[in-house]
Amino acid sequence: MNVRRAAEVTPLTVTFDKDAGNPVHGVGSWEIQNGALTLSGSYACGKALYGSPNWGDYAVEVTVTPASSPNCGLLVRVTNPGDPSFLNAWPSASDAATATDWIVGYFVGLTSDGVIIGKQSYGYREVARSDGAFSSGKSYRLKVVCVGARISVYVDGTLYLDYTDPEPYMQGMVGLRTHACSVAFDDLVVTNP
């Protein structure tokens, strides 16, 4: 068992105008294009993590522009990211698609028919969903507020989900994630809630 004291967030802003803002961990072929962090291709999968695994409560937001059927969004409360470059014992972890699930934390994402929260522990399990219509080629401002066991999710200022996890992850990094979805992320901002 690891016990860590939650740390106050150090506010972070990454505009992606010139670079990826020095993620602390990343998987996938990310590029800076037109002032955004992009991942594209027929099977675009990846994650990029920022901040500290000790961060406690925070608010994080980013502009998300899916270029294909949406399955992209934010990672919150992330610890223990698996990296396929050193996980040779598991051959399936050698690709970025599998690596998107190799974390402990939450994925908060947009899909073509709604907003989801997935709980991850080297796998994926959906724990909350709200209906909505999200399409490729359109930009959305996704915001997640994590306070204690509560995760609140907003899209373009509208509350879509307000989920309280009965067995929560209480601290961790923030990040960007896409799975089989070409996407552009812009203007990542992390603040105290």
Describe this structure in words.
With 193 residues, this protein is mostly beta strands. It has one helix at 96-99, and strands at 12-14, 25-27, 31-33, 36-39, 45-50, 58-66, 71-79, 104-111, 114-121, 124-131, 140-147, 150-155, 158-164, 173-179, 183-191. Strands 1, 3, 4, 6, 11, 12, 13 and 15 form an 8-stranded antiparallel sheet that branches. Strands 2-5-14-7-8-9-10 form a 7-stranded antiparallel sheet. It starts with 11 loop residues before the first strand and ends with a strand.
Mean pLDDT: 90
Rg is 15 Å
Element order: H for helix, E for strand: EEEEEEEHEEEEEEEE
Number of helices in the DSSP assignment: 1
Outline: globular
Strand content: over 45%
Short description, anyone?
The protein has 193 residues and is mostly beta strands. It has one helix at 96-99, and strands at 12-14, 25-27, 31-33, 36-39, 45-50, 58-66, 71-79, 104-111, 114-121, 124-131, 140-147, 150-155, 158-164, 173-179, 183-191.
